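WARN retry 2 of 3 for item q-0093 after timeout on previous attempt; input resubmitted unchanged.
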Amino acid sequence: MKTSRRLITVAAALAVASTLAACSSGGSAATSGEPVDGGTVTVGMDRDITSLDPAKGAITQQPTFILANALFDPLFTYADDGAVVPLLAQSLESDAAQTKWVMKLASDVTFSDGSLLGAQAVIDHITRLADPATACACARDAKSIVEMTAVDPTTIDFTLDRPNSAFKNLFTRQLGYVTSPTLDEFGVPLGSGPYVLTGNQSGTSITMDRNPEYWGERGHADSLDFKILPDSDSRYQSLVSGEVDLIWSESSTQFLQAPTDGFTASTADTGMSTGLFNTKVAPFDSPVVRQAVQAAIDRDVLRSVVNEGTGDVSYGPIPSTSSYEQTAEYPAFDQDRARKLVAEYGKPISFTYTSDNRPQSQQRATVIKQMLADVGIEVTLNPVDTTTWGTVLRSGDFQMVDMTTSLFGDADSGSTSFFASTGVSNFSKYANADVDALISDMLGEQDPDQRSELLNDIAAQVFVDAPVVFYTQNVDGYIMSDRVGGVPDVSTRSIISVRPSEFWAATS
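OK item q-0093 returned
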């Protein structure tokens, strides 16, 4: 891509970004009004849901946590200021060494069949996640707990295999969504959430009614209807036609169009787009090749062309929204350096780039293919459906894979998950003993300034080893009509903590 064209594109994209900032916010007449009880809220989802069991991971991804938060309640969640706060749990305290922790639970929490969600239920849940037969991606986190004891019905003692000052963060995701051993009529474990499952038609819809046994404040809507609408354009048209009340979107075009169509968008720069190398297979078993790809990718162009100037470029594993400041410098776009590294490798470089088949992912892959061709690297694109993409990612059957994730929203857990040699999201199979030692020091450090310094040391080494290429921080979120209220401003609240019990049908 020529420089003159790139500058024109970036200038145009800046105008687009300014428009988006002016028209996309978290408030609307519906969301700011008085809550209304009753009726049905209908949500357009961007993918089929292969399982409603949190252990399987399908409902613990950024666009699908809304389902998890309807059927289940996490032990901990994120407050609007980003702090990790108790929800089902009341507290979690550690000793000075950060290896022994005591969790207190509320005494009145029950599953949807009225049975107690107490200390033993939490222990049984974590034991299940650690079991290889469950095949949970979180198994390594669960196994980091080497001993659990129910002191009394609402108190649990945990002993960890190593210090972890961010231990409670693990309970905001799969470890925190406690399931009952009892299954409902659809074969889904019972939860403690504000809604219960009433219908599950694969590839079509998931329906829920208010949980009559709910231990907390009941949901406003009588029922929730989640429509499976994988095609982005069709999903938006379903909002226009009134078939659904709100949709999940990752399309900057749709966020820009929404005000013209009378809709409101609630967005945040939460999704980080990356490219993961399989460091155990050629050609990416060579750090020289990984560094060449890293140097050849212009993140500003990806932001301007693929994201239409919205969001930001990614500077690494500490996002701009983090309370930590990233001081480690990400390597600059440098085609000359990339070509020198290609020559240093001494052999032709070609590989397959796997992405999901969503429009933005395919467009990003196409732009990256051209960038790499400019430095003499041949790329074959392999777009697959989201289910297949997940299978490919977990199996490691790829050379390089496109991944957009919210996991780096928590810099501590994100860096541990992706870059520790035993990390639960280390799909790159990356291993560096120095990085492992830095992560261990970071997890045992309580002082925020010292943790920030260690996180930047981790980032600096990761930039050199290049198991991951960081692309952009993307604008994601919800677009809603005035038929629904109570949707929060996700620029201040983590998207994974959005609770549909707060939604109400404004026209009920």
